[in-house]
Amino acid sequence: MNRSSVETQPSAAASRRSSYRTSGFAIVGCLLLTAAVALFLSERSTRAQAPAQAPKPAAAPAGNAKNGKQIFEAQGCFKCHGSEGQGRSQTAKESAVPQIAPTRLALPAFLRFVRSPTGQMPPYSSQQVSDSELTDLYAFLQSLAPSKVEFPSTANAQNGQRLYASYGCYECHGGEAQGSAQTGGSRLGPIQIPFASFVSYVRQPAGQMPPYTKKAVPDAELADIYAFLKSRPEAAPSKGIALLNQ
Questions:
Q1: Are residues 171 and 122 in the same domain?
Q2: pLDDT at residue 175 above 60?
């Protein structure tokens, strides 16, 4: 074996090792590239399958609650739905009326309902009340958040009867709170609305009734009057309160 042959063998082995390393790097590189492509395709597929985010609904017009209250009264809505939109329970003489304040309807649905209502409510055309006015009315109804005024357990119906007379409530609503066709005063007894709604009505009444501030008539006195109204019989007797006949 000559020297040339010996020197050639290590050189060939080194060449093979280098070839193996190159092949290994190429394989690793291919695997990494394949994994990257697979990850890219997977993310792209996930984005394609994900549902598109729904656009946020446009905010409803704010409306003018103060003007809405005037429209509520001018259109006579309070006659059926109550001064606070609280509705009315069914009685022997009157059918039930749903509560409308605060309404659960969105503004567009509210507009459609007023134009084409169900039940006994009459439809209101755009000539009678415009969409802009209904938007104000809607704002008023939504502003009628439940009051935190609670009816005290110490309320005195007898004192409420005296206060009812001294404040002249009987002049419009009758001696037994039975209402009056002559004055147009609505029937109040036995009262059907919650105490908080009663207080709110006295503070900000509808129709021709004057408002009574908390300074003029404290909540405690209103509680006594409410207790008196609550104690009234379903069918009021023909005679009035004895105090009023003196």
A1: no
A2: yes
